[in-house]
Amino acid sequence: MAAPSAPTVDAFTALALSSPRRWRTLRFTVTWRREGRTDTAVRAWLRRPGDLRVETLDGRVLDRQRAAHTSLPDDDPMYQDYRWVAMLNPRELGVVTDQGLPVAGTPVEHHGLGEVVHHGRRAWQAELVPGEHYDPRCSCCPLLFSRISEDIEADMGVEPVRAREPDLRYAEAHRVRLDVGTGVCVYTEELGGSFAGRGHDLTIEAVDEPMPHRLFD
Questions:
Q1: Are 207 and 181 contacting, i.e. CB atoms less than 8 angstroms apart?
Q2: How many whole angstroms separate alpha carbon 157 and alpha carbon 180?
Q3: d(Cα 88, Cα 9) in Å, to the nearest integer?
Q4: pTM (two decimals)
Q5: Core vs surface per residue 23-54: b (16+ CB within 10 A) or e
Q6: Contact indicator for 64, 53 with CB cutoff of 8 Å
Q7: What are the residue boundaries of the structural domains of the chain, listed by start?
Q8: 185 in Cβ contact with 136 (< 8 Å)
Q9: What share of the chain is helix, strand, coil (3-state, %, to 5)?
Q10: Contact 196, 190 (CB under 8 A)
Q11: Would you say 200 and 187 are in contact if contact means Cβ atoms under 8 Å apart?
Q12: Residue pair 50/130 in contact by the 8 Å Cβ criterion
C-alpha cells in the first residue's frame, strides 16, 4: 500500500484507519510515560492476526500469545490493556460509529498538522482535541483521555477519575504522531492538565519481516 504524500486532515484520518491494510508483522519497542515516572521499555513481535511476543529489552519473556482470539474486527492481540490495541490500530482517531456503522461527525479536532521524523521514520503529527463523537476502543484506556472518555465511563456506571480526583484538569490537547508507512500511533502526549506529559513512545524496528512460529510458542 503506497504511503500518503502530504498531511491533510482527511489524509490523517484515512491514515488512522489504514493500519490493518499496511502491515502483517511488526517488531517494535514502546515506553509508557505515566504520572511521575517512565516505565521500562518492552520489545514486541506481532504477527497478524493473533500472534504476539513481548519481552524486556534484556530478553525476559513477559507474554506470548498464539492465534489469540480478538473480539473486535481488525483488532490485534492485547498486552495489559486496550491502549495497546488502539496504538497499533488507531481507528478511534478517524472514525465515528453507531453500532459499528459510520455516521456523520468528526471524532477529533486537528491543530498544527505537519510531518515530522520519529525515530528515523516519516510520521504525521497533530494536536488533537476529542470532540463529542470521539469513541475510544475502550473508554477506561483511551488514546485521548478526556472529559469525553470520562463521560462514556460515567454513562456505563463506572466511577470516572474525576470522581476520585475532584481537582482533575483534563489535557488541553493531545500531541499525536502516526507512522506514515504503517498507520500505527507511535506517540501520544497530554498537553497541559493534571497528567501533562503522559503518553507513549513507540519505535518501529522492522515491518513485514518473517517471524518463525517458535517466537510465539
A1: yes
A2: 38
A3: 20
A4: 0.92
A5: bebbbbbbebbeeeeeeeebbbbbbbebbbbb
A6: yes
A7: 25-208
A8: no
A9: 20, 35, 45
A10: yes
A11: yes
A12: no
Q: Which residue has the cell 488533537?
A: 128
Task: Write out residues in the chain with pLDDT < 50, as ranges.
Answer: 70-71
Whether 169 and 77 have beta carbons less than 8 Å apart is answered as: no
φ, ψ of residue 197 in degrees (nearest 5)? 95, -15
Q: Write out the H or E segment, with its range, that includes residue 29.
A: strand 25-34
pLDDT on residue 74: 64
Residue type, 44: A
First-residue to last-residue Cα distance in the chain = 30
How many Å apart are CA 21 and CA 115, to the nearest integer?
21
C-alpha cell read off for 50: 493473533
User: Cell match 521514520: residue?
Assistant: 121
* Residue 120 CB burial class (10 angstroms; 0-12, 13-18, ≥19): exposed
